Structure formats: structure tokens, C-alpha cells
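Late entry, written up from scratch paper. The run itself happened at the end of the previous shift, but nothing got recorded in the book at the time, so transcribing now.
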Amino acid sequence: MLCSLGLAALLAAPSFSLAQVVGTPYGFAAGVTGGGSATPQTPADIEELADWLADDTPRVIMIRKTFDFIGSEGTTTQRGCRSATIPCNLSNGGQDWIKDTCDAGEAQVQVTYDNAGTSGLQVGSNKSLVGVGDKGVIRGKGLRILGGNNNIIIQNIHFTQLNPELVWGGDAIGLEGNDGVWIDHCKFSLVGRQMLVTHYESSRLTVSNCEFDGVTEFSSSCNGDHYWTALLYGEDQKITLDRNYFHDVSGRAPKIGGGGNQIVHAVNNYFSNIGGHNFDIGKGASVLIEGNVFDGADTPITSGTKSSGASVFTTPDSSSAATCSGYLGRDCVVNSLASSGDWISLTSTTPLYDIGMSTGNIVNPMGVSKVADYVVKNAGIGKLGSAGSADSAAALASEPTSKKTAAATKAPASQGAEAAGMWTQCGGANWSGPTTCVSGAQCVKQNEWYYQCLEA
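Output as recorded:
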């Protein structure tokens, strides 16, 4: 089925401002508004942050510092487990496990962990959680988005230090059945368990411009690379993975399927220094992998994927990539491998049909030669002024650009006398609101469509 997405129309369409959110949710998160036009607020402490995230009020929550939860809920010492047969555990650069009953080949040990890391901050519906500059850090605790809580944006936040020495020490972001989540320009590091996990329920989300930083002293394989990266495992999930930077990880990067029906579009991601495996795809998953770069990846896709019962299209060459045109209205982009393991060619057209049927959710990739440079420059926190924060189609259709300086830039002529508030929009193409800022702020260009009042 031909579901062509008009690139020219997308390029002409303005990116809308969602208060402090930069750019527009796209892919399977298209239409998400988060806190919408709610007045941006900055929590004073960890208690206020927790309260605001969990309540029923639409909110735009600005993070301007490190919110440190370590020690806030005490510690627990309990029985744990350590491998007795594999020479890799907490004593020599590995991880021990938080669990009461050990499996065969494991020895009982005592483990001590920070309680804050093992229980995430609950997030209610209609929330935007946005970091300011490179200052938005949540340390020692992740997010837990319970089923039924929908329409959420998480942007420009660094999640770190969740009991990294212990498996089950904590997940950075856990989704448990959510319709409409956009996770953008975030960074994940030093996490005990999953950096991202979708659990078993239905979820619709886009993960874009994020950095999955696996450098650690506590590796389950003792190779300095984090193993538990991203687990996308649930019923009726629709997920876009676009322009993310996975580096120094050794597994589940990502693991998809095995527990339900997933439609996943993995496009323009950069996988660097992967000391284990990237894609591990199980039964029930429908996955299109295109335009990604694998650089120093031992196992770009596991051998078990081929016999797992999953439906996967991997664009092994330009000839097969042309197959996409009948479903997506364009050829797929061939993946690139350098200094990496063998690539498995899989050509099921089921993912092409599934994604092609999702009109309005199709991502138009950039050429694969641009991916590594673009992703390294734009993925992660503190880069919302870069091209990586613009509309997907506009950003991907242009040459990658480095982060713009935060110098004041003249916005279009004002059509009203009212001054825009701190952190709000003050200009951009087709903008008809105020283009001057309140005292103490200056109007700074973020991209063609969005100018923002920032501290002078």
C-alpha cells in the first residue's frame, strides 16, 4: 500500500511551540502535547518535583539543576546473588543481583542499595518535563509512567546513578501502558538495570536524539560496557527510534519483542563501540531497521533473530531497499557497517506494510553518510539549540549542523506590544505573538520556526 508522506508539505509546515518544549513530537508520538500551554514552573526541591510529576494537573516542569535523590529514602541491606561460575561479579568490575533466591551457579551474598533508585518517580498525564541548557539532571531515581497516564514529553534530562553496581538497582524510564510519550534529547548513564523499558502493556512512543551512554565500572560482562540498555517488550506497541546515540553498551541495544505485538521503526541511529549485541528481536515483533550506522559493533543483530518468528526488514542492499517504495512512498536507506560483525539480511515486508499503514507517523531518513556526524553532535542533553531539535522532516532533509551559539538573534517584527515571558516563544516563521521578552531575557533563535526568551 502506498502511503507517501509529502516531504515538501512537511517542510512548509511550521513547528509548533509547546511552552518550553523545543520541536515537534513526530513518528509514533505525533500529536503529543505534554503540558501544552501550562505556565512553566521550576520545582524547588525533590519533594515538589515528585508531587508535580504525579498529580493530575497539566504541567510544564523546568529542571534547572541536579535533583539528587540519593539518600533521600534510606538504604536497604538484604540477600543478593553473585555468579559463582562466571568470573564476573561486583568484586572484579561486574554486577551483583538484588534478589532473595539464587539460581544454579549463583552464590548468596549481602547487597546494600539506595532505596530511591529501585522505585521511580510516578508521572501523571499531560506533563512536559524539560531540562534547561545542560543543567537538567535527575540523580539516583528514574521515572515510572503507570498505565493510563498518557500525553507526556520528557526532554533534555540526564538520568544517572541508579545503583549501577546492582542488577535490579533501578530503571531510568519505565512505561507501563501509555498512549503518547515523546522522549527526546535525554541522556542515560550508570543505571543498574534498564535505561528504557516498556514492560508488558501497550505503548505509543518516539525516542529521539537520546544518548545511551554505557561506560561503567559495573558491567555484567566485565567489559566496561553496560548490558541492560533498552527492553521493548509488550502488547500492541508502536515505537519510533530515531537519531539516538548508543555507545559502549553490550546488550539489549535494543531488545524487541518476545512478549506481544510491536511495530518498531529504527532509523538513523548510531551504534558505536558495542562490545556485545545490538538488535535482539523476538516473536511478535515487526521491525524496520534502516539508515543506521554500526561502528565497532560486535553483533549488529543476533543470529537468533532470524529464527525467532519476528518480522524484520533490514535493508541489506539498495536492490532490496527499493522494495520499500511500494509501501512507504520512498526507498529505504541501507544500513552502514564498519569494523563490525556480520549483518543478517532479513526482508519480510510485514514491517513495511505495518509502518506504511501508519500514515503521518513515517519518518523520512537522512542519508546514512550523514548519520554519525549528525547524531554525535545533536544527541543528548544541552543541545536543544541544534538542528536535532527541529521538526523531523526539516532536520533530516538538511545537512547536519552543529550546536548554535546562544547569542541573541533578531526575531520577526512584533505584531503586538505584550512582552513574552521567560522561557516562552518569542518568534519564528508564522509566529504572530510577541517578539520582545520581559526584562532580563533576550529572544534567541532555536531553529527557523522557534525563538525562545532566555536569560540575558
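The mean pLDDT is 87.
(Scratch paper discarded after transcription.)
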